[in-house]
């Protein structure tokens, strides 16, 4: 087999100077009085106490949406939005040993900056560049320091708008992951766009996170090999990346994904685009670490990925649930199966992760968290931004050219990003970080093990 279309994105000469100048920064508070309260955070929220930065790039628009106008529109829209999302204007606190959000109207950051570059001088927008973080937090020094500050002093969210010489601009958002998962963040963006357009909220957020409370008494009814207690050694996927890591972007076209589906058909019952891409990446990453026959063929490898549980609980969560309603699903295979087993078995192993994530299993995970402060544990975690649809949000000045997280490559984490609009909407980019030699080997495996349509499954 082999000879597919998969294209490796050659390492880009990443820009290291945005020629950025911060013009002003301020704190925005809700435009109307909000009730002071302590907001409960679920066990899922508790684990996700870290920052996430996203950058949304926009081309120059109509004259009515010049940069100064956009700044004022966004400023007003954010202040209005904080009435419904009052917790965003709050601060983290510890009450009785648990994190809560003190909804105290302390506000969010809002910075305005300008770059001496045009957007087309930034390079490929979809090729992650760590310097893009300056587009999300340059005007707020406290955000640069991460969570080293006292929680009472740390904004849970900040916004930054940056103009470029071409008339385009970037909207950067830096927020604590405890505030949103990807699905509720998409709804937040839609509400921001609706208010920016002078309308009302697109959806009213549901903010009672007690729906994901621990049962009384907690009942762990399943084994959870995908989790490790906090008292155990820190998972390597949470550790800082070693300096010898290189990272590269690999692009799967629609034809590549179709070829993988064909390889899994008819044996795999759920050869979705996500499942076949994850299975392919999983096996290639395993093989690049052990180019010869596996020394321990029966050793188990675990792949992890996030699953939305809103519709999987009984009763289901409201679709408008604003918070973290995702849990870590897992698939398992032996080293021998990854090296020589049929591809469709790996696809089924990935699919079983989501299949087992039903009400009782999800409740068992949440209850496990009340007994053991822990983290996901696996050989590879696939974090997917593929179908979140942030770039589909329609603002009064149009949709983004591209929306991306500011990536922090980790050896055991693979990030999936959508292809840039207009190029191949059915494709996906995979960001992989490994030592140079392993990365070269991974790239060759990714291509050589990709079948042509028509290959025998």
Automatic annotation (TrEMBL):
The keyword Transferase applies. This is Rosmarinate synthase. Belongs to the plant acyltransferase family. It holds the Pfam family Transferase. One of its GO terms (molecular function) is acyltransferase activity, transferring groups other than amino-acyl groups. Keywords: Acyltransferase, Transferase. It comes from the Eukaryota. The keyword Thylakoid does not apply.
